[in-house]
Write a structure and sequence with these properties.
By secondary structure, the chain is an alpha/beta fold. It has 24 helices and 17 strands. The protein is globular and about 75 Å long. The structure holds one DNA strand.
Length: 573
Amino acid sequence: MQNDEIANAFDEIGDLLELQGANTFRVRAYRNAARTLRDLSDSIADLVADPKFDLDELPGIGKDLAGKIRTLVTTGSIPQLDELRAVVPPGVAEMLRIPGLGPKKVATLFKEHGIDSLASLKKAALAGEIAGIKGFGKKTEQTILANIDQAAEAAQRTLFAVAAESVEPVIRHLRARDVVSHVEAAGSYRRRLETVGDLDVIAAATDAEAVMDALAAQSLVEAVLSRGPTKMRVRLRTGLELDLRVLEEASYGAGLVYFTGSKAHNIVLRRRGQQRGLKVNEYGVFRGEKSIAGRSEEDVYAALELPWIPPELREDRGEFDLAESGTLPTLVTTDDIRGDLHMHTTASDGTATIAEMALAAKALGRKYIAITDHSKRVSMARGLDSKRLREHWKEIDRVNGEIQGIEILKGIECDILEDATMDLPDDVLAEADWVIAVLHYGLKQPRERIMKRLVAAVRHPYVDAIGHPSGRLIGRRKGADIDYTALFKAAAEHGVLVEINANPQRLDLDDVQAHAAKKHGLKIVIDTDAHSTEGLEMTQYGIHQARRAGLEAKDVANTRTLAQFRKLLVKRL
DNA sequence: GCCGTTTTCGGCCCGACTGTTTTCAGTCG
């Protein structure tokens, strides 16, 4: 059983308990536990099986929840969840997805009016029966009708790179206004999550109305959804919704902290404030009525006796311990990257030639690249067989001799076949400068077979790195079922690198696994997997993921010079 | 249901906005 499934079960218990009007702190305990489990790199099923490990050592997991995890892993179900499901039909929890309907209102609809699904809710709303219910009204009924059809679809999150195209023009537009002294995107966008739900923008200005007017006039804004004295929510033409919050300059830092989140990080900050007799909110840090910090983020953290914490680490996943002990990492940046070791050319499914890719990479400041076209198994992409690959490598040598200022390595993205053998013969792979082994096919194989393939590749004498390990496509395809602990142990033993693939749809390894890889002593390589010259600019997305994993430049192999990089390829020394 | 620098009970983060109310509950982030 995967960690996600266990976390989802706890989230579902939280939802169902909340609908029953359970104690809110009890509900929160289930949600906290779900978060802990979801952020865990180790397989929970393995931890359950490990007699030396106590589950209640995990944060937010006590005796009771530890028992429920064990029950779920060993029996496949939790009796409490089954009982809750029997009392609350599945359609009731689905109603929670409609904006404006929370647990209290949904409980009223279900218990007092027998509405138990989105379909029956829609019918009642169309018949005008909702407006008459106590606590409801005409507006609520209209909101339900306006949102119910899209609520039937799963909550959509937007890839970071796509969200950037919505929020950056808005930021530029507001920044150009005289009335605005500072403006910045906050929320999960600023934390560089791989996907964002909605956008948060925070501005410092004395005239909030003028800022909100400016936003309303921005060409991307389709509709104003709500507007108060300091806060406004709009829907953009791209479909994303955006919250704008306007604060005075003296509160800007506190507001930025508050709206950057994460929620879990903020809760720890405010609790920390409480322990020091301080109140922390979006206006500042207060001792009684008196504000003692708020102008900058650094002030706010300092008032809580902490150094400034980079947004990418603000998840309550250990950053407070690092901050307190003065051991926060100096996170890797795009400027640290010297090489790009995964890209395609017209030889397989890329759109640019070797020379075009090399010159574009050079223009971005790269000192070395590896050309890694597909191997023959990927026939759709015109993958290379031994003969074509050797010819391709000759061409690479020729171009390498012609272009100054960047070194081009002869590489290959070689498939690990379903039977755990490599797609190209050993004598060919031996001639490469650099071999990335990847799974493209058979991603749905059971964990045992997936691991057999990955471990075989790691042990192979000429494999230097494992590329996009899981093969996932965010929001579209679940990755292979991988035992990451076993993979990282094997990779460490054989001196194999693991990739963070910077393609915004992949970002594979993810932040949790990349952090775990670092703890296993592995070096990570951040590659674009570019299929065009423009694709070479995707390094930044991989950097985001690496920063969220807490990686420093020294943890990333391709921050090194080519000579130093080659020394990491122990199999080729 | 969890947890401990006010510790094994009694707390558990904080405020804006909306809609439905006549002073506030519910929802959201």
